[in-house]
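FAQ

Q: What does a record look like?
A: Structure on top, sequence underneath. For example:
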């Protein structure tokens, strides 16, 4: 989208057109595009219809309040979930900062959460089009500056908090390599130097070795989906602490030193939440449950009796089968299984391809867990608690 079109899109002149687009059955259809080009120049018609299409997708991802936001496709893809943005904003507010600089604010959705938490906000965005849309989303509640974070970081007051969500996109698409971050990894480590209250949103796969020793890392799971690693520095950050946070419950489990003992598979199997796995908190969860592991490096726990926990999905072990395709095919056929879920860890197997080869057919449903054990690979027939 050109800057001139973006400026028109957020103006009062475009408002009636956006309202009209909301009534379109399919704003992405060729017929809608043809009709709209009779009344508006092509770029403006495309911008209005595209905005309506993005808003409908945003409502599904972010909730009803997204129906009036100004969006881009990349910005929506990278947008923080509302529950996560609120958690982060509330923690920043609890740290005592009155003003937060959002470095690389994108469409301003995290900044909106900061404003709603009662803080003043200054937002920086390098791309003029995105900055125009962010300013429209934020209104008078925040100041938006067009510029490069690396050039403007020195202007952040020492008593202000900082939130940084580095761009992770390249010409090849989304990247999790810190070498591809924008602003650079050097800027990220400067933000996390401990001199101020700061939070950096990183991909959940960030290697432990890259985390500053004085920073605290929280792996965040929202409704069972691992969404980010939030790295904190400054006052109230616990140096070296790693933990898993489960939203929307707000439950936290801290990683601890130590190893998880291994043992035979009992009557119950537990699949930890992905945030627990990435935070390295499986030994802590194992101790909490009185559970053992089943094989080195395999993120399953087991107990003989059911121990309910919000940090893992529990499965009752109904049967143990040899991990051989012909045996699995015979079991599926004998039990008339038509709906088959296959879960796996620690084995080189494509569950979707295996499911096709097992040719499930029948009225029954089942879940198989394929995993190494100390006695070799097995297939477990399980049932969710």
């Amino acid at each position: 989208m050109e800057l001139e079109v973006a400026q028109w899109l957020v103006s009062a002149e475009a408002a009636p057109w956006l309202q009209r687009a909301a009534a379109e059955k399919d704003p992405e259809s060729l017929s809608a595009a043809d009709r709209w080009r009779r009344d508006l120049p092509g770029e403006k018609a495309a911008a209005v219809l595209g905005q309506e299409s993005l808003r409908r997708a945003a409502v599904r991802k972010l909730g009803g309040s997204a129906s009036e936001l100004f969006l881009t496709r990349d910005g929506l893809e990278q947008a923080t979930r509302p529950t996560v943005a609120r958690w982060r904003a509330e923690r920043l507010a609890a740290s005592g900062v009155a003003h937060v600089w959002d470095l690389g604010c994108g469409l301003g959705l995290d900044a909106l959460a900061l404003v709603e938490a009662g803080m003043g906000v200054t937002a920086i965005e390098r791309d003029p089009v995105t900055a125009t849309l962010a300013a429209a989303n934020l209104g008078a509640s925040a100041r938006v500056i067009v510029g490069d974070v690396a050039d403007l970081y020195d202007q952040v007051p020492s008593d202000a908090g900082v939130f940084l969500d580095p761009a992770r996109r390249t010409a090849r698409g989304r990247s999790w390599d810190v070498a591809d971050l924008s602003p650079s990894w050097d800027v990220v480590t400067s933000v996390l130097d401990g001199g101020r209250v700061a939070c950096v949103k990183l991909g959940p796969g960030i290697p432990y070795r890259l985390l500053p020793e004085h920073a605290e890392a929280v792996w965040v799971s929202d409704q069972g989906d691992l969404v980010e690693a939030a790295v904190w520095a400054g006052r109230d950050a616990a140096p070296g602490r790693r933990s898993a946070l489960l939203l929307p419950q707000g439950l936290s489990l801290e990683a601890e030193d130590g190893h998880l003992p291994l043992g035979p598979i009992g009557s119950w199997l537990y699949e930890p939440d992905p945030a627990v796995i990435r935070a390295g908190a499986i030994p802590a969860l194992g101790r909490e449950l009185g559970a053992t592991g089943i094989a080195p490096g395999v993120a399953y726990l087991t107990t003989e009796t059911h121990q309910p926990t919000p940090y893992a999905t529990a499965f009752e072990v109904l049967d143990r089968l040899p991990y051989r395709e012909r045996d699995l095919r015979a079991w599926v056929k004998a039990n008339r299984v038509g709906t088959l879920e296959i879960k796996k860890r620690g084995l080189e197997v494509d569950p979707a391809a295996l499911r096709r080869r097992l040719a499930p057919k029948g009225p029954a449903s089942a879940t198989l867990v394929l995993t190494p054990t100390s006695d070799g690979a097995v297939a477990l027939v399980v049932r969710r608690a």
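Q: Is there anything notable about this one?
A: Residues 3-70 form one domain.
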